[in-house]
Amino acid sequence: MAKTTQWRELHGSAFDQQAVLITGGAGFIGSHLASALIELGARVTVLDDLSGGGDPAELPKGVNFVKGSILNRDLLADCCVGRRWIFHEAALGSVPRSIEQPELYFEVNARGTLNVLEMAKSANVSRVLFAASSSAYGDSETLPKIETMATNPLSPYAATKVTGEALLAAYSHSYSLDTASLRYFNIFGPRQRADNAYAAVIAAFAKAMLSGEKPAIFGDGTQSRDFTFVDNAVHANLLAARREQRLSGAIINIACGVRTSVTELATEMARGLNRPDLQPKYLPVRAGDVKHSVADLSRAKAMLGYQPIVDFADGLQSTLAWYRQIYAK
CA-CA distance, 11 to 8, in Å (whole number)? Predict the structure, then answer.
């Protein structure tokens, strides 16, 4: 098992007694962020409507949990009062589901982000950090992905994330509120849901293999991703919050900078779960999926001092150990 990240060693006392809000904080990435912030001595409020399947019982002791939606402006306004930073993780995920329900995705992901910015501005919050997505790059063949590339969203989900980035930049330039959009690349780790049709690939593979089933790959398996363990995303958020200079709506890639094909992922996971017999089955490509994705991290290093703290192999080991506990019979 990979060692547990020691947040105090990385961030010292920067968050002691600092009041923060995490929207979507009972979800996968948000709950890991909440745990790190509690360990760092922050005063953490989590706002989550639990539509993503999060469990408040898994949040660390000391979190002030508020059940509700970012579409509830009055409730959101109350949660923003007195906060120094807002980590905006709340969103509907999944490219395939967004193709089925585009209006719902726009309402939650785009209008919800506008609500967060409006309430943050009214409450004199210092900085909002947004969970953006590498899906913004679309199917451009240029690798690695650099933040100065034109966006090319191929799904309603991607379009809502690009809209969020534009809103954050606009608010940062129009008002005193500072913002940044952290473009996550295929975040994975413990507590990522695997119990629905829209599960992310590592979660879906783990559930299938631990149930004795072959993992399903949509496409020929050569498509590649920059799989990024969740502690790296948490670390990036903390670095961005701490930065003394304004971020001014910057868009910043958060990843490991390493490509892994989906077939290579399936092989590695089968080995790690002692099921090398479970060779993947290949299905037709899904609409909205991109072929290759890997991040350039130059801006993250220059602006935030970011570099990955957990590599893919160690992160996958920790993640598989967690799924074994959850799904092993």
Answer: 5
Q: List C-alpha distances in Å: 105 to 53, 142, 171, 184, 326.
A: 16, 28, 21, 18, 29
Report the amino acid identity of residue 117. L
Q: Which of 167, 83, 47, 46 is nearest to 117 (CA)?
A: 167
pLDDT band at 252 (very low <50, low <70, confident <90, very high): very high
Give the 3-state secondary structure of residue 157. Answer: helix
Q: Which residues contact 264 (CB under 8 A, 6 or more apart)?
A: none
Report the alpha-carbon distance of residue 267 to residue 269 in Å, rounded. 5
What CATH code is assigned to 16-189+229-257+294-311? 3.40.50.720
Residue positions annotated with a catalytic role: 157
Q: Count of alpha carbons within 13 Å of 13, Cβ hemisphere only?
A: 1
Rounded to the nearest angstrom, the gap between the alpha carbon of residue 224 and the centroid of all alpha carbons in its chain is: 18
Amino acid in position 124: N
168-189 pLDDT, tens digit each:
999 999 999 999 999 999 999 9
- Integer Cα distance of 319 and 296 in angstroms: 25
How many C-beta atoms surround the C-beta of residue 251 within 10 A? 21
158-185: burial string, b at 16+ Cβ within 10 Å, e else? bbbbbbbbbbbbebbeeeebbbbbbbbb
pTM, to two decimals: 0.95
